[in-house]
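Quick one, tokens below:
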């Protein structure tokens, strides 16, 4: 007899595992106004890469996993069994956009780029436009250049600001990518080495250095201290967004009034 089917469960990272046609309804109802991401895979537990990507987009998308035995879901999302794994993004219920299929390499930056541009497409496409732009037209990375001595450029900022101290005049690719991944979530900024006042204010000795500021006071809150890589910076920014962003100051946490 066939092995009993594993029940749907939610990991501590918020990933829905073992989805089937029945549990899909509950999955799509959670965060219904945001996109849902599905990984079709033979693995039972979420792969590390998928967990990392889900942290970058926490609060902005819901993540799930479907096994290859779920023929009805393979059909519903137009997924072929080979090659595997497959990643698809279902736009929010309010959107008329079709399901988007990831066709790049299974790699952190590529998957995050796909999700960021798909999210941008979902957010900028209203149901009335019959021909949606393709997910390959990415939004512009907005990076604030801090040239003042008193962080004046950040005074109107409501999002947590993260400063990159660098000798470069142009934003490095890693910072451009992060600005896309965290669009509308964090304000990424750059401070050139010759801005001595701001360097002194935060005690920055060596560059590149990354520091996160509280949105209300622009006081130093967190510093990055690992080896620089896309994954390490991406996960650190996820932590910044969760601790300093709107997710970190949950509505009603302090009671009413």
């Amino acid at each position: 007899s066939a092995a009993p089917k594993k029940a749907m469960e939610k990991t501590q990272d918020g990933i829905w595992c073992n989805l089937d046609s029945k549990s899909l309804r509950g999955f799509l109802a959670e965060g219904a106004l945001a996109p849902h991401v599905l990984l079709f895979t033979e693995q039972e537990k979420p792969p590390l890469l998928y967990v990392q990507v889900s942290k970058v987009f926490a609060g902005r998308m819901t993540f799930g996993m479907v096994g290859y035995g779920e023929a009805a879901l393979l059909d519903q999302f137009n997924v072929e069994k080979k090659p595997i794994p497959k990643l698809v993004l279902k736009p929010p219920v309010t959107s008329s956009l079709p399901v988007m299929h990831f066709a790049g390499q299974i790699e952190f930056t590529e998957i995050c780029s796909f999700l960021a541009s798909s999210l941008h497409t979902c957010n900028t496409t209203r149901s009335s436009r019959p021909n949606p732009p393709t997910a390959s037209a990415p939004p512009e990375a907005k990076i604030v250049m801090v040239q003042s001595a008193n962080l004046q450029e950040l005074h109107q900022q409501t999002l947590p600001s993260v400063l990159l101290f660098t000798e470069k005049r142009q934003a490095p690719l890693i910072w451009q990518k992060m600005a896309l991944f965290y669009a509308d979530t964090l304000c990424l900024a750059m401070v050139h080495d010759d801005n001595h006042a701001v360097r002194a204010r935060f005690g920055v000795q060596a560059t590149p250095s990354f520091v996160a500021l509280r949105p209300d006071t622009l006081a130093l809150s967190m510093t990055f201290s690992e080896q620089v890589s896309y994954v390490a910076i991406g996960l650190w920014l996820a932590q910044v967004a969760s601790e300093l962003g709107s997710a970190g100051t949950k509505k009603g946490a302090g009671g009413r009034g």
